[in-house]
Specification:
Length: about 210
C-alpha cells in the first residue's frame, strides 16, 4: 500500500490536506475561493509519486484529488470540487520546495555515503509558533499560516527540520498566490547548532568580507 505524503498531519495520517486547523483552513479557503460550478465532475484518483525518499523503500506518495477532498470534508473544511485541481498541484509543489530547502541544508553533510537523506516522519503543528516565528511576529511581521516538523535520517543521525509557511504577495494580474518557506534544522543537537552557525557565518560574514 502506498505511503502517505509528508504534509498530512492529522492524527490518522490518512491523507494530505494542507489545512490542519480552523486557522489554516480559513487561509486556504481565502486562497482558493473558486465557485463549485464543476461539482458534478468526478475527482481524479490518480496519485503523484514525490521525489522525497522514505526511510524504507521508495518515495512518499501524494494524495489524489478524491482523497484530498474526502479528507477536507471529514474535517468540515467545506471543500469545493473545482478547487481540487488547483490545491492539489500547489500542495505537492510546496512539499517539493520544502524538501529542496531541506536538501540545501543537508548538502555536503555526508548523506550520500548511505544512499542519501530520507524523510522518516512528519508532523503538522499549525498552532505551535516556533521561536523564530514569534520573534518575527514581535517585530511586526505576519504570522505563518502553518508549521510542519520533518524528521530526516542522515546515515543513522536523525535531524528535525522546522518549516514555517508564510504567504507572499498575490500577483494582481493572475491572482496567483506565492508562498515563502522558512526551513531550518531545529536546535535539538550540536550538529544542528553547528549547521546553523556555519550558515549564519557564510551568509553574513562571508558577504561582509566580499563587500570590504
Amino acid at each position: 500500500m502506498a505511503s502517505k505524503c509528508p504534509v498530512d498531519h492529522s492524527e490518522s495520517q490518512e491523507s494530505c490536506p494542507v489545512d490542519h486547523s480552523s486557522q489554516s483552513s480559513s487561509t486556504w479557503t481565502r486562497f482558493f475561493s473558486t465557485t463549485n460550478k464543476y461539482s458534478d465532475h468526478n475527482l481524479s484518483s490518480e496519485r503523484e509519486v514525490s521525489t522525497i525518499p522514505k526511510a524504507s523503500d521508495g518515495n512518499w506518495v501524494y494524495p489524489s484529488e478524491a482523497q484530498f477532498f474526502a479528507a477536507m470534508a471529514r474535517k468540515n473544511h467545506n471543500p469545493q470540487v473545482a478547487d481540487m485541481k488547483t490545491i492539489v498541484p500547489i500542495h505537492n509543489a510546496v512539499n517539493e520546495r520544502a524538501w529542496f530547502e531541506v536538501m540545501k541544508w543537508e548538502s555536503g553533510r555526508g548523506g550520500e555515503a548511505c544512499g542519501g537523506v530520507k524523510l522518516v516522519n512528519f508532523k503538522g503543528r499549525p498552532n505551535d509558533k516556533s521561536p523564530r516565528a514569534r520573534w518575527k511576529m514581535f517585530l511586526g511581521y505576519a504570522a505563518p499560516f502553518d508549521r510542519h516538523d520533518w524528521v530526516v535520517d542522515r546515515c543513522g543521525l536523525q535531524m528535525r527540520y522546522i518549516i514555517d509557511f508564510y504567504t507572499g504577495r498575490t500577483d494582481p494580474a493572475t491572482k496567483n498566490v506565492s508562498f515563502y518557506l522558512d526551513v531550518r534544522p531545529a536546535l535539538d543537537n550540536w550538529e544542528a547548532v553547528k549547521m546553523r552557525v556555519e550558515t549564519f557565518c557564510r551568509k553574513w560574514l562571508g558577504s561582509s568580507t566580499t563587500q570590504s
